[in-house]
Amino acid sequence: MQQYKVEITKEALQDMEDIYDYIAVELLAPENAMGQYNRIADEILSLDSFPQRYRIMDSEPEKRMELRRMLVDNYSVFYTIRGDKVIVTDILYTASDIEARLRGV
Fold it and tell me: Which domains does the chain show, CATH number per domain?
């Protein structure tokens, strides 16, 4: 089975830090924040094997970019596959306006 190298962009790392900070500081739940952070990180790392298990998004321009979406609890992890690399681009709260946030609106 092919192994992929998982890369996380600076933007996606910032998303993870923002999620942690929101839960730890705003919701006053640092243990929950660490648990959520670890669950997201573990699922991202699992993309090293068979990242194609999540389908390409149907909306444009995400479809053209071959952007895939993986759900982890209430969060969506977005990534592309380029050769032997999985590149995680964004991690967003699923209940937000995902398409607008992906496009920077």
Answer: 5-98 (3.30.2310.20)
